[in-house]
Amino acid sequence: MTSAKISQPAPTENWLHALWVFPGLLKFNLQTVQGQDVQIKFAGWHNSSHGPDFHDACVGIGSDEYFGAVEMHLVSSDWYAHQHHLNPAYNNVILHVCLYKDKAQAIHCQSGAEIPELVLADQIAIPGSMELDPSVILPQYHELPGRCGAVAAHQSCHQLLSVIGHAAEHRMSIKSQKLLELWDTHDPEELLFQSIFRVLGYPNYADAFQELGALYPLKFLLPMLRQPQRYTRAEILARWFGTCGLLENLPDRIDDPSLRKELSHWRQIWQELPDKPSYQVSLKNPQRPQNSPERRLLGMYHHLYRIASEGLLKSWLKLMESLSDVRQDKHLGKTTLSMTQGMFPTPDWETWAAFLSIGSGRVSQGLQLVGRDRCLLLWANAIVPFFFVYSRKAHLDEMEKLVYQLFIALPPEADNQHTRFMQKRLDWQSLAAKPLKTLGVQQGLIQIRSDFCQNFYQGCQQCEFPDLIRPLID
Q: What is the DSSP letter of 383?
């Protein structure tokens, strides 16, 4: 009588990820293909989104210590099959881990550097490792707090909030530094214009919109902006859309007749311009359709037309003055956001409110061209840094206090991967008294991640951040 053979499940990349976060299942004398000893000092944080599989890992390779990303595949050739060698997002990979080496080729990233490679097929210490269930292990690992979370949990959060506040102020200073360096040699109003333009393009079009603002500065646009709107709209948007390449290869079919007519008119204006600027930065595809460059450019146009009679700087100074009058209001943050949205109107007649991009179908309900979250990003990345420098340069102490107060009081934007990361590491849900969710707290968390979780080559185990929040907690 023959005994039935118990079949093992086929390995998957997720199983490989689970094996990586349990290095005790691996042999102690790990070595790369190149013959260098490997020590997993910190596996890194598991990434279930785009990019390398683990971020912020700390790995000893040979006599050196590396801090960065780890990418994993079942077979080594998948690195090239998935075209990671062409993607700059993988330039910070410090180790390529695979189960099998199926081709005798070195692993290179887009920058040309060779990446050390670790093959695990012969380095698994425990045969039962195939029983690891990644569907259980990886979500648990993903939710693990950092050492900072272990320190902060179930304790008073006064010291933590103080550290977050200092981090937020530091972040504001960093963002202001570039403006400070340019202030004495540039027109402040142009700096404000380019700052706003850049942030409206964030994240996919920031560089492209900044270049667009330099090619067509505010002093060039203002004379056109003070003309009747029909002329102004066509002349400015034809230049913006044309320079960005949005008027090339227009779809054969654009269902909305007014949109079709307008785009055709803009293309004609663009084609007849005698001098066209040289544009270096390409537009990337948006991750979300409502973030298309068309909508962002229309939003910027309406803002500029709204402030054309008073001027950009005077209009924002007037807004700051109005906010100063209500700075004691407990709803200061909401009032600020409401007034800011008024600076970026979407008129009822605006055709583009019903379209996400050139050639897209009509949306069921019109959308604001510049919405709530974009206004919050403008305050965090353009308005606050600008008026922080402006108030310092003009010795306006009360304005400087107001700027910081607004930075702290404004509501937060929607959570992103950086804030969600820090909330998990700090075990946010277990804090006895959670800090208020404000833009300042959010920016402080992002800065802490940058300063500690990403910048220091020490991994979570040796991070110094828990020591900063410990003194008044113990």
A: I
